[in-house]
Amino acid sequence: MRVHLWFTMATLLLTFGVGLADERLKVVTSNETLAAVAREVGGDRVEVFSLSRGVEDPHYVSPTPSLMLQVTDADLFFENGMELECWVERVLDGGRNAKIRRGAKAHVYACAGISPLEVPSTLSRSEGCIHAHGNPHIWLDPINAKTMAANLVEGLKRVDPEGSEVYDQRYAQFRARIDVAFYGRDLIEVLGSEYCDRLQRSGGLIEFLEAHEYKGRSLIESLGGWRKKMLPLRDMNLVAYHQTWAYLRDAFDLDVVAHVEPKPGISPTPSQISLVRRMIERHEVPAIISAPYYDVGKVRTLAEETKTNAVVLPSGVGADAASVDYFSLFERITDLLLENARS
Ligand SMILES: [Zn+2]
To answer: What is the pLDDT of residues 36-60, one digit of tens each?
Structure first.
């Protein structure tokens, strides 16, 4: 009898478990940062696959048949957009899955509604398609991550309306966690998330906090999170390999005085290297920063020659072992910048 009961329960559990697994939406993303956002808002309702790894350059991924196969049975496709991923169109063409094609109901651009930085005054593709419409590395500003997640939630609700409540709840939790991680709990309680974002977007958050008091205490004392952690580095001059860090720069009031690439996607030339050397000599530059998939050897040589630090920064989730989700990514970036703040 006992054996029979156990068998029945096990069968029920198995059936139930398999049923759940079968019902999960297959969400395919172009990179691991988007996959991390998808896991945050999708929870148990989604199974997430990334087409590229964080240690790969998100601009250049080979559109192999195995990637095409991955999107063939996808229920939703989530890509950054702003032409970060020039390779995705070939993957989607090869996957022959009409419901996730660009413009279809189950396709989501993370960038929708985000104002791009560094939009060129003239559109030119003579040197490749990357950054032709502005800087696409939008996820390196925590405010943008909230918009990216909101865009995904809209897409998830279109393809899985039954999960709407779950997606809304999980989005609200993600949003709240970003707010606390970026500004600290005290400041959010005093000013609210939207007002903090408005001040931050205007570039005047810190000045406002320094100029105002709440209950007899300067508001700057309420600041916490990554924004407070990075205060000692305000106006720090950096040299970067690629124009990866524009949104991070603005999020933390940093300054990038030169890039090792003369233009996004163009290999360094001797004249550009000379220019970078001069900029490092002219400005106090504690670090040359680079994502791991660029020519780190060149960055280290340049740093040695100019007596500064070479810092390999994770540019997205999965770009190093410690950056396993959106929050650990920013912990890692801020830790590494602080460690290397002095040359
Ligand atoms: Zn780029």
So the answer is: 999 999 999 999 999 999 999 999 9
